[in-house]
Amino acid sequence: TPVVWSGYEIGIATAYPWQSIVEDYNYVEAHLIKDSYLAYVPEHPHDRPTWDLTAVLYAVYPGRNYFSLSPGGHVTVSDEGRTDFSVHDDGNDRYLTMDEIQAARVREIFVQLCSEPPPRQ
After folding, report:
1. DSSP string spanning 25-38?
2. How far is residue 93's CA from residue 72's CA, in Å, rounded to a whole number?
3. Which of these, 13, 41, 46, 81, has the minimum number of CB atoms within 10 Å of its CB?
4. Residue-wise pLDDT tens digits, 53-88
5. Helix or strand or coil: residue 51?
């Protein structure tokens, strides 16, 4: 089964902007995302890496060019949890890759999708 990995560098390159968290979630008095973030980083707001979000975005929209893919290869996971990738012709593993334009697009779509208020009923 092919496996696509969203590596450390992808989550760092597409960090979710803290300004969105404190400004875009004010459509309700208490918002779980905003309140959780402020409880976690009450004094020094900073952009948050998006490892999980990048994996979901690729799984839902694999053909929208948010990411590119590495050649096929093998990933090994160390006892400490570090992943190492090596290219192999018979490999089923691939890594998400991106350039600066893709990273900017991903950050923008995250802000749009994550901070969108639910429809009013």
Report:
1. TTTSSS-HHHHHHH
2. 6
3. 81
4. 999 999 999 999 999 999 999 999 999 988 889 999
5. helix
